[in-house]
Amino acid sequence: MVDSLHRKLPTVVVVGSTMMDMITYIDTVPESGETLIGDSFALGFGGKGANQSVMAARMGANVYMVNTLGDDVFGDSTLKNFQDQGINTTFVARTAGASGVAPIWVEKDGSNRIICVPGSNNAMTPAQATHAIESIKDIDIVIGQLEIPQEVTAAAFRAAQARGIITILNPAPFAPLSAELLAASDWVAPNEHEFAAMHPQKRSPDNDETIKDLAHQLGKRILVTLGEHGAVFTTSTGDIIRIPSPKVNAIDTTGAGDSFVGAFAFGLASGLSEELAVKLGCACASKSVTRRGTQSSYSSKEEAQEIIKGITN
Ligand code: RIB
């Protein structure tokens, strides 16, 4: 596929999750045993994998989603959403049973609490992922997260690395990483909580030396999202670069990290410098927190083009 200037579009493959987000907005979440009246409710498309694929597609990437949906109405509507977003669904399978769901609570400061029930995401198989990666031509980047079985992501990443394709692991929600998955990941991109969980002494990424330590210990490129403080990453020579985020008024942070990962992957796959790709991620994530919902809060294709122009000019 080419854009209007006949440049080849970068190809990003997301081997990851889909969820139906069930978002309740409330001033303060209830205590155990307490019942409260919420402000409003929204049903929307989510799942870290799906969110990242949608953001990369809105930026202008040629995106393939690899996933398994259930045979329920959520599976039908999620498949249609991918098609509406221009995402290739050749490698989206269906299985009997429920699709993934995510009940979410958002408090008035924009912070969220999420429970994911993976459902059909857990029916994904290593063979499915390997087949997809070996079948798609000219892949630039493969992205994975931790809402599907780790052995599936590891199989996808191994197949990608065998073809010299860059792999980005967003270790969310946090779980100890299998040696196989870690070995096949080029970039590990946690948020600050996941970073602390991965660090042997459970340290936060405030200090550059802490990040260098973990990068050295894992032998990986590390990219940590820091919420309103932007992001920090290790360069190929082991140096640390911190990128601030534009200042905004956050009303809902749900899915902001995913918009970062999707935009960063697009930037890297497009040949932008790593620093500009991280800036793109920060710009998209900070836009997303100013609007409600997950994918519904992401920049449109038009706004994404404005963001790209603002970063690259
Ligand atoms: O990162 C936000 C996402 O986490 C939500 O869309 C929810 O589905 C969970 O996967």
Q: How does this model look, in words?
A:
- It is a single chain.
- With 313 residues, the protein is α/β, with parallel strands linked by helices.
- The chain has one domain: 3-Layer(aba) Sandwich (UDP-N-acetylmuramoyl-L-alanine:D-glutamate ligase).
- Helix content is 35%, strand content 20%.
- The protein has helices at residues 48-59, 73-84, 126-135, 150-162, 179-183, 192-198, 208-218, 256-269, 274-288, 301-312, and strands spanning 11-15, 19-25, 40-46, 62-69, 92-94, 101-106, 112-114, 141-144, 166-169, 187-188, 221-225, 231-234, 240-243.
- A hairpin with a 5-residue loop joins strand 6 and strand 7.
- The protein is globular.
- It binds alpha-D-ribofuranose (RIB).
Corresponding CATH superfamily: Ribokinase
Count of DSSP-assigned helices: 10
Distance between the termini: 24 Å
How many structural domains does the protein architecture include?
A: 1
Major sheet description? 9 strands, mixed
Strand content: 15-25%
Rounded to an integer in angstroms, the radius of gyration calculated over CA atoms is 18 Å
Structural class: alpha/beta
Strand order of the biggest β-sheet: 5-4-1-8-9-10-11-12-13
From the spread of the alpha carbons, the general shape counts as globular
Q: Which fold does the CATH topology refer to?
A: UDP-N-acetylmuramoyl-L-alanine:D-glutamate ligase
Provide the residue-averaged pLDDT: 96
What CATH architecture would you give? 3-Layer(aba) Sandwich
List unreliable stretches of 5+ residues.
Answer: none
Bound molecules: alpha-D-ribofuranose
H/E topology pattern: EEEHEHEEEHEHEHEHHEEEHHH
In total, how many beta strands? 13
